[in-house]
């Protein structure tokens, strides 16, 4: 009788640890150091930027270097970022990022506001329709 309870408690503890450690959006101050495989682009004259994903169709797990010292890791859906001041920023996306659905610099989001693409990286794009 004691063995099933022990297994049950171990299962509960393991489940709680997985829930606690499996954050979908963790803010970190660890910059992306391997830029070779990253999708890198520039936005101009903005103090806000948003990335919309197709998380309803594809799995994501990516990191973003916002170009102002801000970094987000383990992102699994769309994300936004506020800059301290209006300016030009180079954004670096690395990891599992199968589709860029839309980006925007103002809400409501009228259109894509990417001014240039510096590098496509080695991201395995699943769908590029309506990306820009």
Description:
The longest helix has 20 residues, at 2-21. This protein has one domain: Jelly Rolls, CATH 2.60.120. 15% of the residues lie in helices and 42% in strands. It is globular. Strands 1, 2, 3, 4, 5, 6 and 7 form a 7-stranded antiparallel β-sheet that branches. A hairpin with a 5-residue loop joins strand 3 and strand 4. With 132 residues, the protein is of the alpha+beta class. The chain is built from 1 helix and 7 strands; from the N terminus they run αβββββββ.
Task: Draw up the topology in text.
Blueprint: H1 2-21, E1 26-27, E2 39-53, E3 61-65, E4 71-75, E5 79-96, E6 100-104, E7 114-119
Antiparallel strand pairs: 1-4, 2-5, 2-6, 2-7, 3-4, 3-5
Mean pLDDT: 77
CATH class: Mainly Beta
Counted by DSSP, the helix tally is: 1
CATH architecture: Sandwich
CATH structural fold name: Jelly Rolls
Task: Give a quick account of the main beta sheet: strands, pairing sense, barrel closure.
Answer: 7 strands, antiparallel
Please give the number of β-strands.
Answer: 7
Question: Could you estimate the helical fraction of the residues in percent?
Answer: 10-25%
Proportion of strand residues: 35-45%
**Class by SSE composition:** alpha+beta
* Rg estimate, integer Å: 18 Å
What is the oligomeric state here?
single chain
Output the keywords.
15% helix; globular; 42% strand; alpha+beta; Jelly Rolls; 7-stranded antiparallel β-sheet; 132 residues
Summary?
Helices cover 15% and strands 42% of the residues.
